[in-house]
Amino acid sequence: MPTFSSTELHGLSARELSAGFAAGELSPVDVCVAVIECIEDREPVLNALYVFDPDAAIQAARASENRWKKGQQLSALDGVPVTVKENIARIGVPMPGGTALPNPKVATANAPVTDRILEGGAVIMGSTTMPDWGMLSSGVSSLHGVTRSAWNHDWTTGGSSAGAGAAAAAGYGPLHVGTDIGGSIRLPGTWQGLATLKPSAGLIPLDAPYPGRVAGPLARSVADAALFMTLLAKPDNRDYTARPYPPMNWLDRYPDHTGFPFADGHDSGLKVPGLKVALQTDAGVGAAVDPEVLAAVAAVADVFAAAGAEVKMLGAFIHQGMLDGLDNFWRTRSWADYSVLPPEQQEMVLPYIARWCSRGARFDGAQTIRNFNRIAQMQKVTLGATAAFDVVLSPVAPMAAFPAEQPMPVDDPDSTMAHIGFTVPYNMSGQPAATVNCGFTQDGRPIGVQMAGPIGADADVLRAAAWYESVRPAAAVPDWSSLA
């Protein structure tokens, strides 16, 4: 039986863990202990977990180990360590939404995501942190303080799935779930060097659906994200917005599901020659793209073109009025929550968020409807502009990671969010969008590329990301061992 150090165990992929459990070469309990040791070592600085119960995790790992020994495992991910974002309901666990407000809601039932994870036997290590109400693209929270990057503690992890991003990069297990309404899975993805997926609208069921909001995986590899989707992307009638998607072949290279996607690390099954690929480098809104980010993403298009893909430039398709209106609608939505708090509780909300949402008080009902209608406008133009392409390549964000203590990349609560021009259109359109690391800045900050596709083409988008991941230059490959 192979022997592994605790560092090696907590850094193994979900595919490696599952194969090791199936062969009797790895123990879910040993893996859980190794992840707990990693968390206890790194958590005092990273601050990625809101709830951490090592005793419960060990108990779940023991149950998984017994199932594997009996050949009664619940899924390929039985015993694999995972985390979930704190706004994903876990029965009996408070859901403060990143704020220091007293008496947070305590979940009386699991969210669909939680149920699917538990039904598959995966081991939940804890709930990860988020900023106040999920409305910051950082790990700054009135409740948690600052969540920090596993790459460099001075850098942001991104947000709002802040703890999920830090946990994935740091090795708190291989699989993590975040949520995303404007980029909150993909932004930690790009700033932490991760593979992520914002799925098609309603593909992963939610118990509290909202326009543009999704849950999705964050992992160190596309293969692990794809494997996680076999659990997460199952129908649940609690999500009344869900669409009746046909089954997706997450594991179609192994139809009997005894193996794993992209097992050789080089063959995703993607036919690149003739693939219709768009490259968008100008979102038409927000901040200008940093030259290092632009160069890294353009190089991805070159890789596809060299393999025979038909690459065309795609111009901007949303305009600043759309983004302004959406931002103002979100401000009004948060103002509705903030304004009913007593004064002493308003003071507990992060000052940046209090200032940001205060503009929402200015809009009357008619203007609020006009702002809300920007969602449909953005959906229409995004679907129209991208309809001719199999994959749309773009930056995830215009900039690389910024200081951890800074709430937003552009640190001005009165400004429209300047960093979501490439990500938010796909929330509004309902299209899938994946990220994978494609380079680093000169000072070592990760740079991700976004790959979007047609609604319901989630597995194909992941195949494109997996293909690029397998052929990307060595300089674009994250060295996870350096974070051990």
From TrEMBL:
Signal sequence, renumbered to the chain: none
Q: Name one GO molecular function term.
A: amidase activity
Q: Which InterPro entries did the record assign?
A: Amidase, Amidase_dom, AS_sf
* Organism superkingdom: Bacteria
Q: Does the keyword Hydrolase apply?
A: yes
EC number in record: 3.5.1.4
Q: Where is the Amidase domain?
A: 34-462
Q: What is this protein called?
A: Amidase
